[in-house]
Design goal:
Shape: elongated
Strand content: 5-15%
Structural class: alpha+beta
CATH class of the largest domain: Alpha Beta
Number of strands: 4
Helix content: 55-70%
Distance between the termini: 79 Å
Number of helices: 8
Oligomer: single chain
Number of domains: 2
């Protein structure tokens, strides 16, 4: 077992360290630092607070260079799929259960694992696996702390995902609005130059965009800024 941080294992030092860990996790979202920061913070705080030798983090759909995608088998996959902890104090004895995983972990010198789901409300987003070089798994109190950290990290990841989703949606809506505005401007410019109705002007814009394989907004920009000769759109063949 690694030489644990004796100075924070008991009393007020440990309580302060735990509070600081939760504060660091929530700050990774409030400061908009992205999922990489959430995962890095979870990893560093678990190593600092728990008696473990190493850990792995499984987050399907997200690829992190420092946290490779989990095997197709193993306690992390089971914890993710079931939403429950998976604790094994004799990993070599589970060779028939997870042959590839056991071979990889024992090859790295780990013989015990405690896998906990990363869950937020009813959604499980991944799992974290705590690894030990001795046949000792995390005790009940340490697993509760590890699960609490994992749950906060999961909430942070979901909040970050939602924030990015709405930011992307807002950008898409703004782009659509900007395109609509320039199209309306182009309709007005073309209608005035040709002495035609705005509905006819729009039809000319749309027909030209289709025939030239251009986006309607690009054609409209060309008409408004003068880079596209509006006479082309007014030729008899454009209907």
């Amino acid at each position: 077992m690694n030489i644990w941080r004796v100075g924070i294992t008991t009393g007020m030092n440990r309580e302060s360290a735990v509070c600081a860990a939760f504060a660091s996790l929530t700050a990774s979202v409030t400061e908009d630092l992205g999922p990489d920061r959430v995962v890095d913070t979870l990893s560093s705080e678990c190593v600092r607070l728990l008696p473990i030798d190493s850990l792995e983090i499984f987050l399907p759909g997200l690829n992190f260079e420092r946290y490779p995608t989990a095997d197709e088998e193993g306690p992390a996959i089971e914890a993710f799929e079931t939403g429950s902890e998976v604790v094994v104090d004799d990993l070599p004895a589970e060779a028939s259960r997870w042959p590839g995983y056991v071979a990889r972990m024992t090859g790295l010198g780990y013989v015990a694992v405690s896998a906990l789901p990363l869950r937020a409300m009813e959604e499980t987003v991944g799992a974290v696996t705590f690894l030990s070089a001795e046949n000792v798994v995390l005790g009940a109190d340490d697993r509760r702390l590890g699960q609490s950290l994992a749950d906060v990290a999961a909430h942070c990841l979901l909040q970050d995902r939602e924030s990015r989703h709405y930011r992307t949606l807002s950008e898409q809506l703004q782009t659509a609005l900007d395109s609509r505005i320039v199209i309306e401007q182009a309709k007005g410019v073309l209608a005035e130059r040709a002495g035609i109705g705005v509905s006819t002007a729009f039809q000319r814009l749309r027909t030209f965009a289709r025939s030239s394989n251009r986006r309607l907004s690009d054609v409209a920009h060309g008409v408004v800024n003068g880079s596209l000769d509006s006479e082309i759109l007014l030729r008899p063949g454009i209907r």
